[in-house]
Design brief:
This protein is α/β, with parallel strands linked by helices. It is about 45% helix and about 15% strand. The chain has 16 helices and 13 strands. Helix 9 (about 225-240) packs across helix 14.
Length: about 400
């Protein structure tokens, strides 16, 4: 009996900028390899102010196919060229599955896959851009594009039940039956085994050993609402004068955030670290991780922090309440409420243990990268079998 050929998967993402989607696609490309799968990763170039995660593909020996025009912003002429390049690539490689990630790649990738007659077309929503990103007119354009792209998809994936419900019920992107929930998967063993309060990060940045240390990890962009984080910091500082705050990451909004630090008189209490590749020492020394976003899918920084044993406080937006199990795994505060956010942070500082050992174990089990790969491998086989296109 002959051996079935591998299932050919083409995975498309707009760019490998720092964030959960880039980690997600690299791990899947790495784990879905021969003999069962043959994966091709397609991506565009990162922006001028974005951190680059291309080192992840280099570490795993993955060679992406770069389509320079596959950027973040919509541009009719550039998008038509991207569409043509993707169609041509699909006609050459003949994938069985095209799986797109992020909004822009999802639009052009699924249209190209439909034109190229790819048997199965899948898209993952790591979040969405239908709230908090653009004005009303541009948001309506994106909603129309999402609904059109959904009609060209065999399955839509969200990383949390709340995100599925929001897209299906609030925005009407597609019927709920067309969605599958597949939680993120990450390589968490190192964080899970790391010691709490090892001190290396505090020593590197000359932070007092006994200062309450509160951090935010991620891109400095408007949707992450660092303004709210700093408003919270000012309130916590009044209650805990020794408290210190670290902003890990970078982005287009950094200058404005630094101006706000000065306006609030927090310059001696806030440290900017820029982009960091090794986050384990940071999580080790944090007393609380804060998410202050206006909109989120499933933040990787929350999963990483919980795996490292760090108490988490977040605004109750997007998929975060599901991730924190409605407050069982961390504290939730209403969006844009600095008093509530500060109160939750102070409560977390007063209860540093809070069952973190049990939470670490549960998070590592639920968000394992191997589980993610198995889930999607099974989904690809199911969809191909339904179309009668499973390789034999």
């Amino acid at each position: 009996m002959s051996t079935p050929r591998p299932i050919r998967v083409m995975r498309i993402i707009a760019r490998l900028n720092i964030g959960g989607p880039a980690v997600h696609v690299v791990l899947l490309t790495d784990r879905l390899r021969p003999p069962d799968f043959e994966s091709t990763l397609v991506c565009g170039q990162i922006g001028a102010h974005e951190g680059d995660m291309a080192y992840l593909v280099q570490e795993r020996g993955i060679t992406p196919v770069y389509v320079p025009e596959l950027g973040r912003e919509l541009s009719p002429l550039r998008d038509l060229l991207t569409l043509f390049k993707l169609w041509r690539l699909m006609r050459r490689l003949r994938p069985d599955v095209v799986h797109t990630h992020t909004a822009k790649a999802g639009f052009v990738g699924r249209i190209a896959a439909w034109l190229a007659r790819v048997p199965v077309r899948v898209h993952t929503f790591h979040g969405h851009v239908l709230h908090g990103y653009f004005g009303p007119a541009k948001t309506r354009v994106f909603l129309w594009l999402e609904r059109l792209s959904a009609r060209l998809s065999d399955r839509l994936i969200t990383i949390s039940p709340a995100l599925r419900d929001e897209l299906a019920e609030r925005y009407g992107v597609a019927p709920a039956a067309k969605f599958s929930v597949v939680p993120l998967g990450l390589e968490l063993d190192g964080l899970a085994q790391s010691a709490r309060h090892a001190g290396a990060f505090r020593a590197e940045y000359n932070l007092p050993e006994d200062a309450p240390l509160i951090g935010i990890v991620g891109r400095i962009v408007p949707i992450k609402n660092h303004t709210l984080f700093l408003a919270m910091a000012a309130r916590v500082r009044r209650a805990r004068p020794a408290a210190h705050f670290v902003i890990v990451g970078d982005g287009e909004g950094r200058a404005a955030v630094e101006d706000q630090v000065d306006a609030l008189g927090l310059r001696d209490a806030v440290t900017f670290t820029g982009w960091q590749r090794d986050l384990a020492p940071i999580y080790s020394d944090l007393d609380v991780l804060v998410i202050s976003s206006d909109n989120e899918g499933t933040p990787v920084s929350i999963i990483e922090a919980l795996a490292a044993g760090v108490p988490v406080v977040s605004t109750a937006v997007g998929g975060v309440p599901d991730l924190l199990r409605q407050g069982e795994f961390g504290r939730l505060a209403p969006a844009n409420d600095p008093d509530a956010l500060a109160g939750a942070v102070l409560a977390a500082l007063d209860d540093p243990a809070g069952g973190q050992d049990a939470i670490r174990q549960a998070v590592v089990a639920a968000y394992d990268a191997g589980r993610l790969a198995r889930d999607l491998a099974a989904l690809y086989r199911e969809l191909l079998a339904a179309r009668g296109r499973l390789p034999r």
